[in-house]
Write a structure and sequence with these properties.
VC0802-like; four-stranded mixed beta sheet; single chain; 29% strand
Length: 164
């Protein structure tokens, strides 16, 4: 089975509307995406290229039922050692000129964001942290017992709330 490489968040009370919006928006950019799982405000989707998909979607208007569209490059267990390994591998893409930050999304998880930030940034050997205007974002999306890890440019995460 295909693995999700894009996750979409939405208001859990609007699952059917979100599913319809996801399908319509993907069709609008001619992407044959497939919703693999949808539950409690989060959809896991498989698309051909999640970063290109997000960039194309960000040019569209009128998103009413979805919130964030986030590419996932790699999945690992949502345990600290496994996530540290994945985050460190992703962080190799941060150059010495890049400013970066880490963002954590917690979905159906009892882990704590501050603890995770401390543990997951330990192995990143780059002092250029910039929480306001990073050029690179290490994105960690924890869903149940797995974590989706990505190294993204600012324009590779699409927050529809910013467009409303």
């Amino acid at each position: 089975m295909a693995e999700a490489n894009l996750i979409v968040t939405f208001d859990p009370t609007k699952e059917e509307s979100a599913k319809k919006e996801i399908t319509e928006k993907l069709a609008a950019i001619k992407e044959k995406g497939k919703i693999l799982k949808i539950k409690e405000g989060l959809a896991e989707i498989s698309v051909s290229d999640s970063k290109k998909t997000v960039k194309a979607l960000s040019k569209l208007k009128e998103f009413n039922n979805t919130n964030k569209w986030v590419p996932v490059e790699k999945w690992c267990d949502a345990k600290i050692p496994a996530m540290q390994k994945c985050v460190n591998a992703a962080a190799k893409g941060i150059s010495s000129k890049d400013k970066w930050k880490i963002e954590i999304g917690l979905h159906r998880s009892d882990l704590h964001e501050k603890d995770l930030i401390m543990k997951l940034t330990e192995g990143i050997d780059n002092p250029n942290v910039d929480l306001e205007k990073p050029t690179k974002i290490v994105k960690v999306e924890i869903v149940d017992k797995k974590a989706g890890i990505s190294l993204l440019n600012k324009d590779e995460i699409f927050n529809t709330i910013d467009k409303k």
